Amino acid sequence: MGSIRPIIYWMAESPPCRTLYAVTKLLGIDCEWKVLDLSQKEHMKSDFLTINPFHCVPTMVESDGFKLWESRVICKYLIESRNIETALYPKDLKKRAIIDRCLHFDLGTLYRALADVVYDAFYVGKPNLAKLPRLEEVLQMMEDNLAKTNSNYLAQSDEPTLADISTYFSLSILEIVSEFDLAKYFKLFSWKQRMNEFIKSIDDGTFATGQANIIAFAKKMMDQHKA
């Protein structure tokens, strides 16, 4: 088994980093957190590129030198490597399969659709609203699935799982798009309200600060492009 105190390179403004931070808090996993400021291109410095040539956060390094990146994979690795019994990612294979399905949807479908709309706020000064119909289609799929399964949580569970936490933080970047109102998706909005309370119950200030910072940075970039 790896070290019980892995090093995590991260920044609180990153939704995937906040996912990992939340999971480690919930599971009581002690980590050494090393901040990388992506806005200052610290992730492109040679010492970090030696660790992770894909230059992304979060990145984990165990005491034995084992390196891993991608937040969803790191979360599952920490649970498995430490043999933790948790409802976030239970040992029941069918329950895990549903959680994994939701995680794959979050990464491959939802986050892609979100990024296509939101990331232009940083690079060209405004969200790409031409891509909004695809995002609305994806959100409607989530809405329909919650209605069909009559579930309070994404993986048809009685309490939040890893899939809920990851998806919640993915959706947090939607706040950058002032033109969008999630409330029109009743089931999804209700789920988000439940997750708001769940995340607030474990927040030491990191989540709120990280979210406020990324919103402020997006506004700054949009204002600069207007000037």
From TrEMBL:
PROSITE patterns (UniProt xref): GST_CTER, GST_NTER
Pfam families tied to this protein: GST_C, GST_N
Gene3D superfamilies: 1.20.1050.10, Glutaredoxin
Keyword annotations: Transferase
A biological process term (GO) from this entry: glutathione metabolic process
InterPro entries the record matches: Glutathione-S-Trfase_C-like, Glutathione-S-Trfase_C_sf, Glutathione_S-Trfase, Glutathione_S-Trfase_N, GST_C, Thioredoxin-like_sf
KW Transferase (keyword) present: yes
Domain of life: Eukaryota
Molecular function as annotated in GO: glutathione transferase activity
Family: Belongs to the GST superfamily.
Subunit annotation: Homodimer.
Listed name of the protein: Glutathione S transferase-like protein 1
Organism name: Sarcoptes scabiei
Source organism phylogeny: Eukaryota, Metazoa, Ecdysozoa, Arthropoda, Chelicerata
